[in-house]
Structure formats: C-alpha cells, structure tokens
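User: I'm curious whether this sequence folds into something compact or stays loose and floppy. Could you predict its structure so I can see for myself?
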Amino acid sequence: MKMVILLLGCALCGGLLAANQDRQTHQAGLDRACINARQQQTVQDKQQLIDACVRAGGKANRCQQQYASVGQRTGNERPYVSSLAPCQQAESYRKSGRQ
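Assistant: Here's the prediction. I'll summarize afterward.
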C-alpha cells in the first residue's frame, strides 16, 4: 500500500515538473516576441527622431550620432512593459503564474 502511494506521489510530481517546464517554455516564447516587437519599435522611433532632426536643419551624420543610443538599456534595470501587444501578453502570462 505504501508503495502504491509512493508511486502515485512520484507520478504527480513528474506531471507538475513537466507542466512547470511547459509554462517556462511558453513564457520564454512570449518574452522573445516582446523583445522582437520592442526592437522593431525602437528602430522605427530612432529613425523618426533622426528624420525630424534632419528636417530641422541638422546634418545626417550628426543626427545619427545624437540618437545612436536610443533604445539601449541603462544600468541593471528591467526593461519596461510597453504598450505593445506581445509585451502585454508576456506580462499577463507572467502575472497569471504568480496567483
């Protein structure tokens, strides 16, 4: 009887570990999608700033240098959760695992 209970307990633990790994894999995929969307948005934002600088009379090289650091992380801070849909999905899924 003790052996049966022990085997059932091990089977349940194995299932929980697999579910946790699936959750981590899914979260990693959502995080990757967020990073990709954020990078794409950053490139667009940077280009808009450079274009506006050039339209205002700046030289293209100077404007590119001025906005070269746009989108780069500073320090050890966690990237902000942006309004991009993939980032909101990733954050919602992360929060749902804490409940």
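Summary: The radius of gyration is 23 Å. The helical segments are 2-55, 60-66, 85-96.
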